Amino acid sequence: MPDVDRISSSCAPHPGSGGAEAQPVLKDTVPPVDLNEDRKRRRRQNRKWIVLENASPFLISALLLILWQVIVPLAQVPQLILPTPLEIIAKIGKSYPLLLADTKVTLLEVLYGFVAAVAAGIPIALCIFYSRIFAKSLYPILVGLQTIPKVALAPLLVMWFGFGLLPKVVISFLIAFFPIVITTVVGLSGLDREMVYLVRSMGANEFQTFIKIRLPAALPSIFGGFKVAIALSVVGAVIGEYIAAESGLGYRQLTANIQFDSALNFAALIFIALCGVVTFAAISGLERVFVRQR
Amino acid sequence: MRSTAQLILRPHNPANSTNQAAIRARAVSIALDNVTKVYESESGDDIWALDRLDLAIDFGQFVSIVGPSGCGKSTLLLMLAGLIPVTSGTIRLNGEAVTRPHPQIAVVFQRDLLLYWRRVLDNVLLPVEIRRWGRSKFVKQAEQLLEQVGLAEFSNKFVDELSGGMRQRVAICRALVQNPGLLIMDEPFGALDALTREQMNVDLQKLWLTVANTVVFITHSIDEAVFLSDRVLVMSPRPGRVLLDLQIDLPRPRKLSVKSDMRFVGFVDQIRRMFEASGILRGE
Question: Exposed site from A135, A265, B39, B93, fewest CB < 10 Å?
């Protein structure tokens, strides 16, 4: 952060940058410092480190995969227990149309669940924030309900909503809903009183206060909630598929188990992880557009 | 309401700013009559922040209020700005009672309270946006103000790239863009280092001499109060009363060297003695 207040400009300039009249004694006896040479050297060292730092996760991952590939045959682990990375890749190559179809199903469950959680969570958070009655009555109930593991509701939801998309969407919604409500309430409450005084002194009503300062100030917190929620949504959808399903990546894992096809199981696992990464990255992308980082 | 808005909307062009009389017309007078503020502490006790305070502030005066922490200065400020109600008594602005935020009043707080997601110029224009006065009509004036405080080339920067002193300058511009008849400042330089603070004092005086509105300036610094003000009010601990009402008739514009002037030293000494006499400051 450049610190260039007015006062610093009135201080004596550095002897190396030509303003030597401030220190006439130094000028005669000591040669000026060559800043350029120093700067170049520092930059060279920095660049080397930056390349290494950025490459390090890939290097370590590659190393682990190679170890896995080499050790599994050496230790004579049967393929059923642990397939090698190459076997998994071969499996993906062979059955990717199936896996992509499953991915589409799972992603839809995740997205529907997450969008529903946002659509319900934000208004409820607003009610809790703006209304004392809501805060006093609803908030404790919500926090109490939060202690129920949503996953434990899955068998019931299947009984109620059948084998299709709906029960998975509901689990995914329930699991994503709480973090969104709570981070939104916390974000909205975080604004300090003086800030509110400031805009009120400019004649702002509550709606303007909300749009101009309260919401923008709460956005980092709200997006933090979104990130937690989207990751949990994936968990919810996959677990829903474990209970009862006809397609989806969780369902694919179950069928792979029944067929003793560990490579397919791992392949589905990789696609589940990719679902998590892609949806998280999408939220982060939105965050970068809407929220200015401090 | 409409007529005051019209009055404020008068463009702040350079020809106008040299015409002191025209600008003085914008300044307001304030009258506090028997103003009392009692609020309840967390334990349920009544706390008398102000007890029957009378005060009159003239058009275009720069008035400082100095006093110990908790003497009701900040309460007074919030009431003047119409942000909290008085318990009893009245506050009048040009004879009109202040009961809610008024378009003629702008406030600068101790913390700059800039919005970090906005650029400097957008921060300065915030009050205009909120009052729906038409942003485009005020861009030029906002830029002029920024130029006057030496931040012209920063108008497109985000505020977290600025130092503390620069940020507070932006906050002052944000208050002045509304052309307020009354500017209330609550220890605006309290968080700045001593050198930056002196610079800000000089710059604020320069700015005020061109704007010439009424200013109520709250501070803990006796030095700062005497340097900036036409009039210094010394307040007692709670409930706040005016212990001393001092006219500072040093000529303007004042340079920092005025602080070694015998009359300046005399004023500072007089205020300090008042603090000592009332037990707020203890020598020895």
Answer: B39
> Does A65 share its domain with A107?
no
Identify the closest residue of chain A to B99 by CA–CA distance: A201
Residue with tokens 């050198």: B195
- Quote the tokens at residue B97: 């009672």
Cβ contact B113–A198 (<8 Å): yes
Distance CA B149, CA B146 (A): 5
Residues of A in contact with B116 (CB under 8 A): 292, 294
Residues A26 and A102 placed together within one structural domain of the fold: no
The whole domain housing A70 covers 14-74
The reply to whether A180 and A268 lie within a common domain is yes
ipTM: 0.86
Pair A68, A165 in one domain: no
Query: Looking at the 3D structure of chain A, how many domains does it have?
Result: 2
Quick check: is A91 in a domain?
yes
Q: Which amino acid is at A147?
A: T
Min distance A208 CA to chain B CA atoms (Å): 7
A202–B163 CB contact, under 8 Å: no
Helix H or strand E segment including A101: helix A85-130
Residues of B in contact with A214 (CB under 8 A): none
Indicate the pTM of the whole model: 0.80
Q: Which residues pair with B32 in a beta bridge?
A: B55, B91
Inter-chain CB pairs, A–B, below 8 Å: 68
